[in-house]
Every structure is written in C-alpha cells, then in structure tokens.
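step 3/5: co-fold with PBG
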Amino acid sequence: MAEQWAKHDLEFLAGRRLRRSRATGWSRAMVRETVLTPADLIWPLFIIEGHNERTAIKTMPGVERLSIDLAVAAAKAARDAGIPALALFPNTPDHLRSEGAEEAFNPDNLMCRVLSAIKSAVPDIGLIADVALDEYSSDGQDGLVRDGKILNDETVAVMIKSALAQSRAGADIIAPSDMMDGRVGAIRGALDAGGYEDRQIMSYAAKYASCFYGPFREAVGTGARLKGDKRTYQMDYANSDEALREIAQDIDEGADSVMVKPGMPYLDIVRRAKDAFDVPIYAYQVSGEYAMIEFASAAGGFNREAAMLESLFAFKRAGCSGVLTYYALEAARVLGR
Ligand code: PBG
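step 4/5: write tokens
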C-alpha cells in the first residue's frame, strides 16, 4: 500500500520537482534570475563643514557625516569599489538656515563646494545633487511656508536657482526630492536654457510621507525643526495608482529616471512602475530601513551581512535599475571579493 502511494506520488511529481535545480551551487547559479553588482549601488553621503571632521549619527550606526576632504576620500573608495554614483546631502550650519532658504542657491554653499571638490578629484564618479529646501530652511519643510501652507510655485522658483548653482559646481544628476508639482519640467527648462542640457534629472517621483525618514532628519539636522508633517506634498502610503500618475507626469516633464521612496515597504510600487514604464527606476533604501537592519542584527536577530544582501537583491528582483543605499560601499566590497 505504502509503495503504491509512493509510486503514485513519483508520477505526479515527475515534472514538478523544482528542488532539482536548487540541489547544487552550480545549478542555483545557472538559474539565478537577477544579479547584484557594485554598479547597482548608489551611495548617499552626509556632508558637514570642517576639515578631517566626522560625526556619528545616533540612529544610523556605522554612518557618519563627513567634512569635504573626507568625502573626497570616500568618493575615491567608492570609485575603486565600482560604485557609479554618489548622492550628496549637506548638513547646513544652523546660522545659515532661513525662512527663504536662500542658502540653497548660494554658489559657495556646502553642497556646491563638495560637488566641485569631488568633481575635480574624482572626475569619473557620478554626482547626484539633492534639490529640496529642507536642508536650508528654518522650518525643515521641503518648501517655503506661508501661514502654515507649503507654497508650490514659489518653492519651485527657489529650486531652479539651487539646481543651477549645483550644476555649475559639477552636479551630473539633479535629484528633486521635494514633491512640489511641476518642478521637473521647470528645472529641465532652466537647465537647458542655462547650457546644462547634458545634466540628467532623477526625480523622486513617488515619494511617500514616511516615518522611515526619521534617522535621515537627524543626519541632516532637520528633525528637531520640523513642525507637523509633509503630508500635503509627499504621498499617502495608502495609495498606489497615484504613484503611477506621479511617475507618468515626471517622465512627461523630462525626467531621465525616477525613484520610489522608501524602498523595502514599497516594492509593489517599483514593480508596478517597472511594468508600466520604460525609464530606469531606482529605489531608496532609506535611513529607517538601514536602522531596522542595524538594530535588529545588533540585537542578534539575524546576520547583518546576510540581511544587507538579501534586502538589496529584493530591489533588483522588483525591477530596479539600482538602489540608493547606505550599505553601498560595504556591499560593493562584499560583491567584489
Ligand atoms: C529631503 C529628503 C529626505 C530624504 C531624502 N531627501 C527626508 C524627507 O523627505 O523628510 C530621506 C532619506 C532617508 O531617510 O534616508 N528632501
């Protein structure tokens, strides 16, 4: 009787033994559907004033803010590890933050200085410049504020000036992370008119109002300033169709590539975007996602390096052309060995 059941199962299973291809390392390698290489990794760096200065970020163990000279050294290490591009974020000194966020378009601001320092020392790495006002405004909002409201068109006008200053300083890719309406088209027009038609725009097209940005706000020094939230411009996390509208609009306005953010909790959005559009899609594994992996592995929940690689592969599987990740340098080195 037992033998008969076994025989029946064997026949039933003949063409359904999926474990066959998983049985050995060489076979797993043959059927692997996605790859992760250093070229998939974009490394965000936090920049501070000073020389030979590095400061810790409490909620992002292992990530440090770097002065410009150390950022240049980091850029060399990144290039040597095969990382194609860096995403730069300034921690603007407090006394330079203002209601009008004028520091955003000061040609000598921290952002412009780090752009030109890296561009001249490491010309073969791509530089992605974040454009948003939160890193320069006294309110910590991504836009100008009047009577408690975030102003759209007035904010875009400041962002244009900021993007031009960054381009002049050496930014290769302008990355508006603010979610104001119409900013991609406005920046594209200004770049073209200013002689920067060769600069790309990577738009944070589907950016959600998320608690996972918490550690980043500590890193750039906006957390304590921010009153209220960003829900009148960043997206409601209950929505997915709306993300496709945002992405379609940014492509229509001239975005060369688009981003979904945060990353891991939004891989469904990445997949929908990948199926619907033919532009490169990036995702940002944001500060809170990094913190989750760090704190859980420090508590013994799982192996840190394994979690790092598994999480990064998930982005590729979902359809990303690349990932902005605080793990970029470490992961590139692991992949390269
Ligand atoms: C600000 C900006 C944020 C991030 C990138 N650019 C924070 C925010 O919108 O409040 C978050 C990145 C991260 O959490 O790692 N324009």
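step 5/5: annotate
The chain has a mean pLDDT of 96.
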